[in-house]
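Morning run. Coffee first, then this:
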Amino acid sequence: MTDPATTPEPATHQKIDTSVPHSARIWNYWLGGKDNYPVDEAAGDAYTAVFPGIVTIARGSRAFLRRSIAYLVSEAGIRQFLDIGTGLPTAENTHEVAQRLAPEARIVYVDNDPMVLAHARALLYSSPEGATSYIDADVTDPDRILAIAAETLDLTRPTALVLSNILGHVADYDRARSIVDRLMDALPPGSYLSVNDGSRGIDPVFEQAQDAYNSSGAIPYNLRTVDAITGYFDGLELVEPGVVSVTRWRPEPGSPVPEVVAEHGGLARKP
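And here it is:
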């Protein structure tokens, strides 16, 4: 186990490229953050000109993350989180939600974006009782992720694997499925999988905007059907209401019926 604040893995092989838009920085821009460059703002504005609803999707995704983490802590009793595809720090990061409810919670963040690494120290402010750490690694290298995560997390105890808007960056669906399976195979019964991703077959305007973005030279993000997203949970026990539009996953009591957006997610338990 590590101290409450740990030093992130050094990233010596990457530099921040400010000439090409990057999805993590564009997402940060849509969420109202400041950790982005003019090229990201331009790409974000071009996207919203075609599909203004992307801001609703981005914020709905973040709200889904907050609600699912709160469920995991308060109702499922989870105290360990492996969050892969962290993105740039904004409000209500995984460790903030978890440690507000359970100060002893331990969180490992994983990302391979050099700008995220540059901001990693902002992620590493843990409660004294818990711990956070950061791994500079790619989702396509699950064995390395698991080996380093084990320095902070006790992977013999139930752990929540969080994959928020990251699997779309794995172009081959079978490979994405195999990555999820490898990670979940390493976690014990009672662990959970949380996935949310952009969905195809819901909103053709969104699909048009995403396809244009993918052809722009930026790192592509592959939308997948709801059935394909549901496939990540094969062999696990889905928590009600299953895989749904993120806005409709356990919305706050008393809130208006939310609109369906082309971003689907779910949470499931490993039996």
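The radius of gyration is 17 Å. Good start to the day.
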